Amino acid sequence: MELKTERLTLKPLTDEELRALRDAADAEMRQAYGEMLEGALTHPRQRLWYTAWGMYLNGERIGDLCFKGVPREGMAELGYGIAPPWEGKGYTTEAAACLVDWAFAQPGVEMVEGETEPGNAASRRILQKLGFLPCGMGAEGPRFRRMRGL
Questions:
Q1: What share of the chain is helix, strand, coil (3-state, %, to 5)?
Q2: Is 81 helix (H, G, I), strand (E, B) or coil?
Q3: What whole-number distance in Å separates Cα of residue 141 and Cα of residue 105?
């Protein structure tokens, strides 16, 4: 499966790609990619909710997006990151908009949330551009929510 935007292609990463990312990552991301891999392996029918989705520009992977597991009580949680050379060019906003639209097209998804680190103004701007509204604080920092149909 792949999703297309005006400039990007989004593709779910394979188990092998997740393993490679996990093995090459720093400690924090090693844990995150490990959790994604474990979820994808444990829940193969729902792996799109667990794996990272590669963000490709002209065939080059420039970043990743993910959901943090299957939606719970109608809520899916979005995460994303992009390589520094590609920051500030609108790619993450474009990719996140596409993946949020995909999530809302899935049965039972009524809201998507995202959490940012307190000092990450760029990440907050991405969510705000996509119509997410502040909804409190999470473990990592400010949380934002967008409801279906908004």
A1: 40, 30, 30
A2: strand
A3: 28
| Distance separating alpha carbons of residues 70 and 77, to the nearest angstrom | 9
- Nearest Cα neighbor of 40 from 10, 63, 17 is 17
Q: What is the pTM of this model?
A: 0.94
Q: Which helix (H) or strand (E) holds 89?
A: none
The Cα-based distances of 119 to 65, 74, 113 in angstroms read 20, 28, 18
Strands (E), the chain: 3-4, 9-12, 52-57, 60-67, 75-82, 111-115, 133-137, 142-147
Q: What are the tens digits of pLDDT across the range 6-55?
A: 999 999 999 999 999 999 989 888 999 999 999 999 999 999 999 999 99
Phi, psi of 82 (to 5 degrees): -140, 150
How far is Cα 149 from Cα 2, in angstroms, rounded to an integer? 23
Give 82's Cβ-side CA count (13 Å radius): 23
